[in-house]
């Protein structure tokens, strides 16, 4: 909140925006939104709440009762929260998850801004994706949002890799929906199928890692087995932004391929949520300077 004393910044009129997730203390979202509120003179404050699935229902009930204007949702609540909301945006329905809730006089609407954020992050890095081949590791909330948006926005070929864990069935549903509703060629492979992983990454233009690999407590974990799976012409986006440079990104540097973390994605998905809550455009260049 810069140098403005808390007693001048927060008054009886100040409205609350929150973020409910666990773990949460690494988040850049409070800095992003509070700086934007301050810059635009908007009377809101953004605060993090450590909430997991066990306390999610009570939390949503409480936020609604307190007439809180809206909040963000992150791991592990993105899918679980949808059943407590009144409406879902079309993208949120396809993905089956949401990262943003807007409270309009007690009516809670969930939407997902991660996919738009990721596509805008690629654009901001000068990366064209229309007609390209994209490989995505992960099939959770963020990954699915990216996959849906990429296919809708004109990626020619989308190859998804995931472990055969509880997300596998969700990935199969995403593939079926995207084959039906978009022009993209969409395939799904087991992340442990290393022959397929090597073949698909060799032919790929863009690789997005949308797993928690690289983030605490998986700092030393990379979703792909070793740097030989990367090539110089591949563009790699790691959705993790804490730490700023993941082990995957270090491998990319060693191989010589362009890579960047999830900060831009976070910025653009945040700007979309900011607009829904306040009706205002986030001052993106200003916020980028503050965050970087
Ligand atoms: P999620 O829990 O919904 O999904 C996790 C996914 O990762 C699943 O597909 C799971 O199979 C896979 N996975 C988990 N552990 C793995 C491992 N050890 N090896 C391989 N795969 C593994 O999570 P989510 O909300 O989709 O978030 C995933 C990542 O995306 C997180 O790192 C999060 O920080 C990042 N994210 C970034 C932004 C951003 O704006 N930059 C936004 C949302 C999420």
Automatic annotation (TrEMBL):
NADP(+) binds at residues 138-142, 239, 262. Shikimate binds at residues 27-29, 74, 99, 114, 241, 269. Its EC number is 1.1.1.25. Keywords: Amino-acid biosynthesis, Aromatic amino acid biosynthesis, NADP, Oxidoreductase. The keyword Transcription does not apply. It comes from the Bacteria. Residues 19-101 form the Shikimate dehydrogenase substrate binding N-terminal domain. The active site is at residue 78. Pfam families: SDH_C (PF18317), Shikimate_dh_N (PF08501). Pathway: Metabolic intermediate biosynthesis; chorismate biosynthesis; chorismate from D-erythrose 4-phosphate and phosphoenolpyruvate: step 4/7. Residues 262-291 form the SDH C-terminal domain. GO terms for molecular function: shikimate 3-dehydrogenase (NADP+) activity. HAMAP family: Shikimate_DH_AroE (MF_00222). Belongs to the shikimate dehydrogenase family. Homodimer. Involved in the biosynthesis of the chorismate, which leads to the biosynthesis of aromatic amino acids. Catalyzes the reversible NADPH linked reduction of 3-dehydroshikimate (DHSA) to yield shikimate (SA). This is Shikimate dehydrogenase (NADP(+)). The gene is aroE.
């Amino acid at each position: 909140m810069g140098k403005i004393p808390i007693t001048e910044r927060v008054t009886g009129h100040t409205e609350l925006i929150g973020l409910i997730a666990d773990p949460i203390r690494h988040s850049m979202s409070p800095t992003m939104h509070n700086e934007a509120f301050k810059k635009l003179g908007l009377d809101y404050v953004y605060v993090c709440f450590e909430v997991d699935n066990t306390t999610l229902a009570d939390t949503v009930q409480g936020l609604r009762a307190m007439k809180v204007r809206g909040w963000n949702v992150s791991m592990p609540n993105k899918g679980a929260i949808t059943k407590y909301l009144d409406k879902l945006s079309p993208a949120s329905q396809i993905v089956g998850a949401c990262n943003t809730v807007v409270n309009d006089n007690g009516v809670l609407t969930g939407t997902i801004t991660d996919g738009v954020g990721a596509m805008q992050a690629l654009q901001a890095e000068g990366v064209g994706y229309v007609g390209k081949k994209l490989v995505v590791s992960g099939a959770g909330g963020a990954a699915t949002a990216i996959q849906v948006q990429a296919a809708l926005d004109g990626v020619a070929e989308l190859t998804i890799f995931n472990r055969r864990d509880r997300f596998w069935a969700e990935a199969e549903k995403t593939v079926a929906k995207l084959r039906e509703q978009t022009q993209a060629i969409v395939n799904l492979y087991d992340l442990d199928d290393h022959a397929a992983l090597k073949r698909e990454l060799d032919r790929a233009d863009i690789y997005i890692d949308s797993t928690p690999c690289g983030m605490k407590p998986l700092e030393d974990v990379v979703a792909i087995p070793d740097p030989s799976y990367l090539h110089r012409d591949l563009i790699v986006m790691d959705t993790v932004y804490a730490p700023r440079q993941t082990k995957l990104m270090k491998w990319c540097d060693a191989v010589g391929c362009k890579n960047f973390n999830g900060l831009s994605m976070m910025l653009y998905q945040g700007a979309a949520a900011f607009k829904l809550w306040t009706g205002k455009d986030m001052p993106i260049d200003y916020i980028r300077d503050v965050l970087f």
